[in-house]
């Protein structure tokens, strides 16, 4: 199992090994860090999203860029909102369901990479 060294805050406190298969998505933030989202927590790593995209491409991991600021573990997506172009990581949806946006330009490519039986909704829900 592959792990990623992450911290619990941007100052480097709480360094730990996180199993990569627990990652839902990585998101660039305004402070030049990458937010690493799991189902219940958020961690931080340094580097660019481009670096992590390249690193994951060298493995068998199924990460894909959803938009310019989000790199997602496609295996963790549980539902797509076709109206809003949003990927959800729980289904059925709950009030605390994590989600990320999908760029219009990458939407079709992402749909082709996801299982056809993946639930798709059209409601305006966030």
Automatic annotation (TrEMBL):
<dbReference type="Pfam" id="PF04397">
    <property type="entry name" value="LytTR"/>
</dbReference>
<feature type="domain" description="HTH LytTR-type">
    <location>
        <begin position="13"/>
        <end position="115"/>
    </location>
</feature>
<protein>
    <recommendedName>
        <fullName>HTH LytTR-type domain-containing protein</fullName>
    </recommendedName>
</protein>
<dbReference type="InterPro" id="IPR007492">
    <property type="entry name" value="LytTR_DNA-bd_dom"/>
</dbReference>
<dbReference type="GO" id="GO:0003677">
    <property type="term" value="F:DNA binding"/>
</dbReference>
């Amino acid at each position: 199992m592959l792990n990623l060294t992450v911290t619990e805050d941007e100052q480097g406190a709480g360094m730990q090994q996180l199993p990569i298969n627990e990652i839902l998505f990585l998101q660039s933030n305004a402070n030049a860090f990458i937010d690493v989202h799991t189902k219940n927590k958020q961690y931080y790593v340094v580097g660019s999203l481009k670096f992590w995209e390249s690193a994951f491409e060298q493995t068998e991991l199924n990460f894909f860029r959803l938009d310019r600021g989000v790199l997602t573990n496609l295996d963790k997506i549980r539902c797509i909102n076709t109206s809003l172009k949003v990927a959800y990581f729980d289904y059925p949806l709950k009030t605390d369901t994590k989600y990320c946006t999908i760029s219009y330009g990458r939407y079709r490519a992402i749909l082709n990479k996801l299982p056809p039986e993946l639930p798709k909704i059209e409601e305006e829900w966030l």
